[in-house]
């Protein structure tokens, strides 16, 4: 088992990967560096191989797929996840790892937004998108994570091995944050510097399509992790629509004794029925969710013992 495993997922980072490897070798000489190449069409793989670090290939495209394989194949006391684009200075790495190794944190996020991100980043929609996503997740899941979409974070073995990675792409950061908040892991924020990509190095993120996927992931996980609240809100909306449609029909009936707008009454009835069904689904799924959380806690205890046995 490695003391510190530096995990670098890469896709076409030939321009920057050598600098990233050199910097982390210097700052974390005790760390083991792993570069996972994700079907690069440039010389990323060859450069990393020549640098003398551990290099592997992941054929399934997408950062989520790479991270899933990394967590599954690598055993370490601390996992340091960083992008291969040379935007995260290695000088902050030890501060992130210290929170895991010495202070008992399960997930440590490298907080760019409190330091140099807004001055360094040249893509304005990324700036506003980061703020929107941060506010949504912290509001829905009662968290205080300073930088939701950072690619620079340190993780404990308990978190890495219990993280059910379902996303395939850049939604992985969102998924990790929500998992950590929902399962009550110890989360720390460490302010880190950020520098924009060097000239000629292109971001793999698409502001619109990847942003939509991240927002979609938030609402999907909100439904999965908070089913009672999700379906209660949906039931409330349907019930309000039913009342708005139904009240005029009932007022007319009490005044004339006739129901002249039968289609409206039927529509209101179906809307109220749908509201009751959604509320029932919310209660049922909430009960199942609580049972799943209980089972997860028991599984964590077993996993913790296995990790301790591996360290012995």
UniProtKB/TrEMBL annotation:
Transmembrane domains' residue ranges: 228-251, 263-285
Pfam families recorded: Glycos_transf_2 (PF00535)
Highest taxon in the source lineage: Bacteria
Domain Glycosyltransferase 2-like, first and last residues per copy: 6-140
Keywords: Membrane, Transmembrane, Transmembrane helix
SUPFAM superfamilies linked to this entry: Nucleotide-diphospho-sugar transferases (SSF53448)
UniProt name for this protein: Glycosyltransferase family 2 protein
Species for this entry: Enterococcus hulanensis
Lineage of producing organism: Bacteria, Bacillati, Bacillota, Bacilli, Lactobacillales
